[in-house]
Amino acid sequence: MTLWNGVLPFYPQPRHAAGFSVPLLIVILVFLALAASFLLILPGIRGHSRWFWLVRVLLSLFIGAEIVAVHFSAEWFVGTVNTNTSYKAFSAARVTARVGLLVGLEGINITLTGTPVHQLNETIDYNEQFTWRLKENYAAEYANALEKGLPDPVLYLAEKFTPSSPCGLDHQYHLAGHYASATLW
User: Which pTM does this prediction carry?
Assistant: First the structure.
């Protein structure tokens, strides 16, 4: 059940799909604009050095775009599983769904899609993003997810990355993401 062209009523803003990232698209378009502007300048270079500059600049732009795109992508680790799982807490109702986890340098993205999407008189299609940047509090985002009443599979995966989790995934991924991001910049 959606309102206003597919925006769910309990979200303050529309979310982007797990496979499509707006910042990543912006990075790609900026580097394509730089490459196109260089190609416009290229006829002004005289002699055989034109080909040298073409290869040099386009290769440099490609490597730079790839490094910046890796920074903005959420595909450091990717995992999906089709499962038959409980849907809500304290309920015996089970759903057949696909659960996906995308771990990036700045956080995780958890997707839950029912197969079929309409089960238990509900549309089961969730895409939740939890970030662990320095300015943002992952534990507070997890607490907000609990208050929203997200389904059990989403909360179960998100809980594994909380600072109080005995798994220790928060410490490993948060530090690794922070230092990898600093190195890329």
Answer: 0.70
